[in-house]
Amino acid sequence: MSADTPRTADPAAPAHDAVSCTGLAYAFGETNAVDGLDLSVREGEIFGLLGPNGAGKTTAIRCMTTLLPVPAGMVRVFGLDASRERMGVRRLLGYVPQQLSADSGLTGRENVALFARVFDVPRKERAERVAQALAAVDLADAADRLAKTYSGGMVRRLELAQALVSAPRLLILDEPTIGLDPIARTGVWEHINAVRAATGMTVLVTTHYMDEADQYCDRVALMHRGRIRALGTPDELREGLGERRRAEGAAQDTLPTLEDVFRDVAGSGLDDQSGDFRDVRSTRRTAQRVG
Ligand SMILES: Nc1ncnc2c1ncn2[C@@H]1O[C@H](COP(=O)(O)OP(=O)(O)OP(=O)(O)O)[C@@H](O)[C@H]1O
User: Fold this and answer.
1) Is the pTM for the entire model greater than 0.90?
2) Which UniProt keywords apply (predicted)?
3) CA–CA dist 249, 241 (Å, integer)
């Protein structure tokens, strides 16, 4: 197509990306936590934002959720400007932060009901929507137990139910499986997947776990020192590195992993102040019971 050929809009294409960041920058004093981030999350996909400690993932997400201002660049959520239309953006999304957000002294049902009230779920629909959200994460049988009796995996699923009760178009999860054992991690992902399949909701998730991203995300972005260093489907990224290595004549018995891809794009910088993928210094301890 020549530069002059008029483009016809694809009627099947969504009008807006779920999230679009252009030149997003955010600094804490001298620290450029996010440093010119360009990123688009397409409607309906599970998108993984990966990176080591301190890469800037949480800061970027907090700008997208309007919890932090957007001092430089632009953030749009389904076309709404996160700086100017904060309430509109908030209504479109469910957010599960890294920090525990469930109240240990309330039952699972009461915790979800609280979110239903805060997010203005109509009073008449509330009981049913709360029950649906709990059932979607397999907590119907435990709904009337205090959250402090839940295991770490159950707490994480409860937080997922809290975020789902308002039927968000975009679900943002900040390290949803950190601190969980492998079985609980799989459980959280299976519930995310099932809800996405049932609702078509877009999911943006941050994680240190490259294996999870490889298995569950449609596309991933590798973030390092405030910027995106690589972007694509997990297969594209792994095959791209494999091809490059073959072209360079490097011997390889197996296809590179996503971790190999990240080491390749971020280089030795990964091993200094940024920490390693699994160097989880986060104070959050989901594996422990709340309370
Ligand atoms: N409230 C704050 N005050 C000062 N510096 C901060 C603050 N929050 C984050 N930073 C710094 O900003 C940079 C990016 O941090 P951020 O938490 O966004 O990274 P991250 O990729 O989410 O890391 P993690 O995986 O450990 O959660 C880091 O250098 C961090 O030390």
Assistant:
1) no
2) Antibiotic resistance, ATP-binding, Nucleotide-binding, Transport
3) 12
Distance 275 CA to ligand 1 centre (A): 12
Give the domain ranges of the chain: 19-232
Architecture of the domain defined by 19-232:
3-Layer(aba) Sandwich (3.40)
pLDDT tens, residue order, the chain (291 aa)? 444 444 445 555 567 899 999 999 999 999 999 999 999 999 999 999 998 888 999 999 999 999 999 999 999 999 999 999 999 999 899 898 887 778 999 999 999 999 999 888 889 999 999 999 999 888 999 999 999 999 888 898 999 899 889 889 999 999 888 877 888 888 888 888 888 888 899 999 998 888 889 999 999 999 999 999 999 999 999 999 888 888 887 767 778 888 888 888 877 555 444 433 333 334 344 334 343
Question: What is the CA(49)–ligand 1 centre distance, in A?
Answer: 14
ipTM entry: 0.97
Ligand 1 neighbours, Cβ below 6 Å, are 28, 31, 33, 51, 53-59, 282
Reduced to 3 states (helix: H, G, I; strand: E, B; else coil), residue 102 is coil
**3-class DSSP state of 253:** coil
Distances from the Cα of 254 to the Cαs of 193, 212, 213, 228, 269, in angstroms? 28, 19, 19, 26, 25
Mutate to test the pocket of ligand 1, among 31, 96, 175, 277 (most ligand atoms within 8 A of CB): 31
Q: Select from 221, 162, 249 the least CA-distant residue to 34.
A: 221
**Ligand 1 nearest-atom number relative to CA 282:** 26
d(CA 137, CA 9): 38
> CA-CA distance, 291 to 285, in Å (whole number)?
11
Q: How many C-beta neighbours within 10 Å does residue 248 have?
A: 7
